[in-house]
Amino acid sequence: MTKTMAPLLAERPGVRPAEAVSPALAAVPAPRVDILGVRVWAQRLDQAVATLGGWIAERRQGYVCVTGVHGVIESHRDPALKAIHNAAGMVTTDGMPLVWLCRRAGHHRAERVYGPDLMLAMCAASEERGWRHFLYGATDDVLEKLRGNLTRRFPGLCIAGAYAPPFRALSEEEDRAVAERIDAAQPDIVWVGLSTPKQERWMAAHLGRIEAPVMIGVGAAFDFHAGTKRQAPVWMRRNGLEWLFRMASEPRRLARRYCVSNSVFLWLLGKQALGLGGARRSDRRAG
């Protein structure tokens, strides 16, 4: 394990740094919990890192949906997006409400596998493993700052390439050129920062078209680690209040999303609890 990963994981209750990149963890099937039709992995951060490390070692292609309440509600409204989530190689518990539902379903060691934390943990493991990274999304300014901050924090990190796509749909020719650019960099991990649901659709559409074994959609993690947006204090993140901090920081963009999504989420859970017994275990296979 790298020196940088130990302090990162030591800050997270219940995570044992010595196991952070243990290959043995990748062999342990992560149980799935059905949350309003989206199958979410009930796991720890170190388990997620180990599993993704296994994908890279095996050159097994897959994408990761880093999902919170917003992603679940968008999937509830859009069957195609729900199918994309359920076809993912991994769906992480990006929000504390999903963690609480996993624990309620009997997976008491489940924790928040938060996009920004997952990004740092994978970068830390990369210093030891030599994994190569590609950054796709955001703007040129954000990518420059993100690249600089990550390489300063992890001096052994290899960011093999980065690209900020235009804020419009790409033509087939442009999209093909992007895939070729990513493949030319030979990354092991492609980080996608396009926000939900655009990043999930992009990853699903490019599975098999890009050679990298791992694609991970992390949305606002690009801005947080670039320093262009403030992150909620740790105590708010640990108590399910990050949405309140982000809504207060960007009310015009996020107020409707959080107010509507959170209300619909609670209403649907209540309805499900009355009729179907709430969130349930659905699949214990590693996938």
Low-pLDDT regions = 1-20
Mean pLDDT, as a whole number? 86
Terminal residue distance:
26 Å
DSSP helix fraction: 40-55%
Strand content: 5-15%
Radius of gyration using CA atoms only: 18 Å
Number of strands: 9
Count of separate DSSP helical elements = 14
Protein structure class: alpha/beta
Biggest beta sheet summary: 6 strands, parallel
Shape: globular
Q: What's the helix-strand series?
A: HHEEHEHHEHHEHEHEHEHHHHE
- Numbering strands along the chain, what is their spatial order in the largest sheet? 4-3-8-7-5-6
Explain briefly what this protein structure is.
By secondary structure, the protein is an alpha/beta fold. It is about 50% helix and about 15% strand.
Model description:
The chain has 14 helices and 9 strands. The chain has helices spanning 5-10, 23-26, 45-58, 69-77, 79-86, 96-104, 115-129, 140-153, 172-185, 198-206, 221-226, 234-238, 242-249, 251-275; strands at residues 32-35, 38-41, 62-67, 90-93, 132-137, 158-163, 189-193, 214-217, 280-283. The protein has a 6-stranded parallel sheet with strand order 4-3-8-7-5-6, with helices on both faces. The longest helix is centred in the last third of the chain and has 25 residues, at 251-275.
